[in-house]
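Hi team,

Filling in the usual template for the complex we talked about on Friday. All components are listed, including any nucleic acid strands or ligand strings, so the model treats them as one assembly.

SUBMITTER: L.P.
PURPOSE: interface mapping
COMPONENTS: two
RESIDUES: 1153
SEQUENCES:
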Amino acid sequence: MLVPINWLKDYIDVDVSPDELAELLNLTGTAVESIKTLGEGLDNVRVGLLLDVKPHPDADKLSVTTVSIGQPETLQIVCGAKNIKPGDKVPVALIGAHLPNGLVIKPAKLRGVTSYGMLASRAELGMGADHSGIYILPEDVEAGKPLAEALGLDDTVLELEITPNRPDCLSMIGMAREVGAITQRTMHKPEVTVTESTEKASDVAGVEILDPDLCPRYSARIIRNVKVGPSPTWMQERLQKAGMRPINNIVDITNYVMLETGQPLHAFDFNTLHGHKIIVRRAKNSEHMQTLDGVVRELDDTMLVIADADRPVALAGVMGGENTEVSDGTKDILLESAYFEPTSIMRTSRSLGLLSESSSRFEKGIDPNGTVYAADRAARFMEELADGIVNKGVVDVYPRVILPKRLPLRTDRVNAILGTKLGVDEISRICRRLEFTPEVIDRTTEMWVSVPTFRPDLEREIDLIEEVARIYGYNNIRSSLPESGDKQGGLSLRQKIAESIKLRLVAAGLSEVITYSFTDPHDVDKLQVPEGDPMRWFVRLMNPLSEEVSVMRTTLIGNLLKVLKYNVNREQYDVQIYEVGHIFWHEQGKELPDEETMVSIAMTGARIPDEWYEKARSVDFFDLKGVIEAVLDEVDAEGWSVRQFTHPVLHPGRSAELLIGDESIGFFGEIHPEVQAAYDVPRAYVAELNLNKLIDKANTVKGFTEIPKYPGISLDLAILVDGSISNDRVLDVIKSAGGSLLKQVRLFDLYTGKGVPEGKKSMAYSMLFSAPDRTLTDQEALDAQERIIRKLEKELGAQVRA
Amino acid sequence: MNNVSSQADLQRILKEGETAVLQASNLKELDDVRVEYLGKKGKVTAVLKTLGQLSGEERKETGKVANEVRQKLESDIASKHEELTRAEVAERLATETIDITLPGREPVYGHRHLISQAIKQITDIFIGLGYKVAEGPEIELDYYNFKALNTPADHPARTLQDTFYIKKHSVQPADDDIVLRTHTSPVQIRVMKSQQPPVYIIAPGRAFRRDVADPSHTPMFHQIEGLAVDKHITFGDLKGTLEEFTRQMFGKDRKIRLRPHFFPFTEPSAEVDVSCGICSGMGCRLCGSGWLEVLGAGMVDPNVLIEVGYNPEEVSGFAFGMGVERIVSLMYGIPDIRMFYENDMRFVKQF
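RESULT (copied from the run log):
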């Protein structure tokens, strides 16, 4: 909400600077979003009266004007605009003026005629966008006066963020009350005396509420014989500063009083109301009406309308209808000042997509007991500013009076919640500053507080405690720490393991990325996921921002490939990353979709970049496998293995499933060339492992193994085997034949090519033999090696190489 | 062979040996000389072997000479060995110089995402204050995300405009509507429903709001929610806790201020500002007012405590929530939070 400080000063003494006021408001719950000082750059701009406008002797498009600025001498000013005539009052920028748009005014010769200043448009004065012509000022401003003063621009406007629980602050009087509570001053509401005619309003107009649940109160006044025209400059300027557009005196008055009191008002052209009646009722289904914005709206029976004897004439609390709009010819007014049920207004406004100053106040809750004051205030203005004659009395239908709430407030409760030591007296004082009425029941502990109806947000003791805290000052409350000493913080064991896995991945050279949990449903097509695969059991968003982020991901791999692509496009070719995040899938019969945490990896480019000491080497399957082995080492998983794995996302010859015991933990391998093409990325290797299963398999109690006391014997063995025989098979044979003396076996060379027959490969293993209780003899080691060789020959057809 | 000739031989061998030692130019040659004269089949050894053929007196005399010769040669070889060793070390040092300005062999090492680092930093602070880390699903029931948190049925957040829905029966919210959680606060509800006080938890995680991505918004972001429920928890405790957090997170001299605000799930509620680190609260281009808004907080609303089955007359609590992207952006001066989700390696690897 925009609050011009000069307007605020009508109701309260403000003796602090705008900056200080803003700070006080900030610290008591009214966030100040901006402080705008008006009239800046208008130091040398005066109101001028045009005495004469003549054509320029040498230029068709220019005029030479004579302007009075309230002094005996007049000014000669050359002007290019056409919308001026003698008698107009206009803004004159004098020599030396430095306008808000940066223009500096100097004497200038225009086609031989000297100009001693400039007539200005609104845009040039920083007062809007209108630069179509000179700003013609209202007639009632005084020539010669500084423009800022004449237009009341020597003002500061605060832009406030009013939280939804404080509708009472959506008005100047409400803000004055708030400022009063903060600065310990008293707010003064203007006294209103309406001069009434003898004709009684209730004799000429009828008001009937058919749905009192949605409209607890409807107050109306009748104002006769108004003259519709522009409202006075002061009112127009205030409306503009508060962000509203002046329309005519009647509409401006309703808006002005709404801004002043927070009570939305509506003026009907009384003579267009059929039967001179107001009927407040629910709309009928598929009833139509044209609102003031010209749109024909279809209504339904959840919406409240104001109708006359025959038809709807306004959408209650949201917007008036065209059929009863005030026009230039309007003579008599029915002024509506009502209280509508907030939720109903909110629903109507939302379902029609129609927000107005009025609806935004009603939907948060206005003061049901403020309708008559606002109606009187507006009626008084209509007398003064539109020559209206106000009928006697208010037609006020208010079947069940809404009384102020009485809430309990316990001193010890206040102090228990806030950690303060406030006494009854201090709490009572704070209550009174907010215009609450405290009744002390017990000097030390208990009081009852009567809360005015303009504070619908206060319903419970805790609400009052918040008010006490707010006014006492949050920053005056002493800081402490919770007393409880027996609490112990920390990560759970599972969280610690998860953390150690992430650290191990980083230690293995992978960087962490974070991508969105939602993704493009076409990702699974690009990943070649077949129909019916669980990766297609999408959880879909009802209201995605776009198709590309419309389903919850069922794998992290698509997103990781997109990260590779993003980086490769930016000349970052060596990308080795992981992400830990949820995947989601839909399963029938469950309350919520399933979620599982995956740790996924993608690697492309060089594992080792070109260095002065070493040639670059591209990432391959075994780099990825090495990373996975590092993770397995981190969790110390026992009995893990890999097996051939077929998944369309992966290269069939270079993919593996990881098992720990019998349980599948995930898969890894090179991406399928088709997938590579679909994502337009270089050769890449990916893995996706189930984090929770990894953690389940973690061995957290590590045992100790004796360090060998006796030296061992190391032997190397090179064999030739068929190309199809896997390392794992060779190892199995070596280990089973080696027996207990074989402590370690490690592949140290793998070779095919020259010297090795077609279809065969050479594999060289280094073996360590030792015994725990003695120094092994050479012969014992050689015997073991011999057993190994025999078994390799027998079972795998291996040949020993020399 | 007689005595005299043996002794003459020894003198000759000594002379030759001395010359050979002198001429040895490296340790290898020197060792050859040692073997030639003093080895098992060496010249001096050969003479010593003949001593047995001599008579007692002769043997004694020749033996003495031979020992003298051997000792002399051994001593010569030893000093020559020392000389040559020194020379070789000097030679090695002279030839083995390198360009110490060449780059080192870099161990392969990755980087945690900056958001994860910040989450770790923040959770570590609260772990030190006695908090445990709680987690929950990212897809939540309306009940946990909104209703149990005292959010009014007509709150704007509960519309298709502001929140991502998986399932929504109608305009009116239902407990089993399904949303992408809009904060990590539903974790609070799940924890409180599963255990009795005291509760001291911190809940980091992803949250989702239906914001189009721009420099200060992304539809997914990270939040850290904290909750303390116990006997005698006060607003002062909330302030003290946040002050301790601020000192550890932002620095000893940073201050906080609390501004009253409105949240459905806390009362009293506050927005919390940290004094600007650049201007120390004087006001500058980064902060404007001298203060940076970093989190929202308040005393847990009694309605929330009642909802989870706690008695608000017996226990009270505070809660706070902070946006990790915002805090990290402020700390590192990152101009556009979308960068966190682009995962440009040149960004990721800076931290």
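MY TAKE: Chain B has two domains: 3-95, 114-348. The first helix of chain B runs from residue 3 to 23.

Thanks, L.
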